[in-house]
């Protein structure tokens, strides 16, 4: 009987509980299907620190090699280290990780050569179809000649590439607390930071895919409580938290206060525009702060607004030749990193910006954090379309607002905006609101929530 993969093949990746929803036998079929859809003759494969990751990764490699494809295994790595290998080696790649999900989960993030994304519209649907068919009828016949499986260490090359993109040679000494959340930041940070003028205070650097200290999702305020406290105790200049596969970074200032990812997007955008001669396109999704397009224009750039989601960001990066892109979720994309996202490169930019002047991080980011945001507020609703229609009806007749439906519903006025988007996977509506002051933001937030929640 064919497997039903509808619950584990998501919009951008594969993700599910091991072994309940998928296992090494299916991973081997995914390896074979991936090579067929990409037409690869060689691929690169890496994995995170989850207990199931080495076995799943090796099974995928076996499936690819059985089809005559040579496999380069880079072993333990962050997701952006896998993207580096895909770009530098010009090979399609597969990363075994479930990012910030609990320990019993695992998944595959796949890309074509040069770290180009594989999502539902760019090959993932075809991969799912093949795996489902083969799980019922049996794997395809092996190739006449099996491919090779070889090991390669890319960590130092990855670190050198990142450091070639940010000049940290003249920064003042900084004390930085880094919370790796027992994820892959504990593997990459020591090598990337080696030799820099940084007094590094490591937290939870031990690789442990059971996440004994807290979930490796720094966007949840509960998971940065320890980091905020440690920054204050140490009198550090800043704190940085990485998620489980270390492709996202989250920053707190010297007071332990979180720095909104939109402010980091604006800061890095200004630096990247300066590095590229004061011009260039910068991508931002529609729920980043108004600060982002403002800062981009002030620094000579052209902001381009997109839907939420890395496949949309990466597609616009490629279409426009953008130099940088940022999302509210702390994903940061760089043209000089094959348009892929790397939290580590964003972290180096923050360190360079802070260390290149004498002020505090809170003072530095104030110029990039100009408005009051609600953060993302999720509401469980049974009829997403009906609640969105009710919101639209409530605001459609007003002459002081503009409505657009690029992604969900966005309502924009002179002093505020809000966006409401349905979740692709859960019965949720996600609200983000922003205004010029706290009172206005609270009013608009509460108005929208009253309609959403009926």
Brief overview, please?
This protein is α/β, with parallel strands linked by helices and 454 residues long.
Query: What kind of oligomer do you see?
Result: single chain
Q: Based on CA inertia axes, which overall geometry fits?
A: globular
| Radius of gyration using CA atoms only | 22 Å
**pLDDT < 50 runs, ≥5 residues:** none
CATH superfamily of the largest domain: Alpha-D-Glucose-1,6-Bisphosphate, subunit A, domain 3
* Count of distinct structural domains: 4
- Helix fraction, binned, reads 25-40%
Query: Any guess at the CATH architecture of the largest domain?
Result: 3-Layer(aba) Sandwich
What's the SSE blueprint?
Layout: E1 14-17, H1 24-38, E2 42-47, H2 53-66, E3 70-76, H3 79-89, E4 93-96, E5 105-112, E6 116-117, H4 124-137, E7 149-151, H5 155-165, E8 174-179, H6 185-192, E9 198-203, H7 225-234, E10 238-242, E11 249-252, E12 258-259, H8 261-275, E13 280-285, H9 291-298, E14 301-306, H10 310-320, E15 324-326, E16 332-334, H11 343-355, H12 361-366, E17 372-373, E18 377-380, H13 384-396, E19 402-404, E20 409-412, E21 416-422, E22 428-435, H14 438-452
Parallel strand pairs: 2-3, 2-4, 3-7, 8-9, 8-10, 13-14, 13-15
Antiparallel strand pairs: 1-5, 4-5, 5-6, 10-11, 11-12, 15-16, 17-22, 18-22, 19-20, 20-21, 21-22
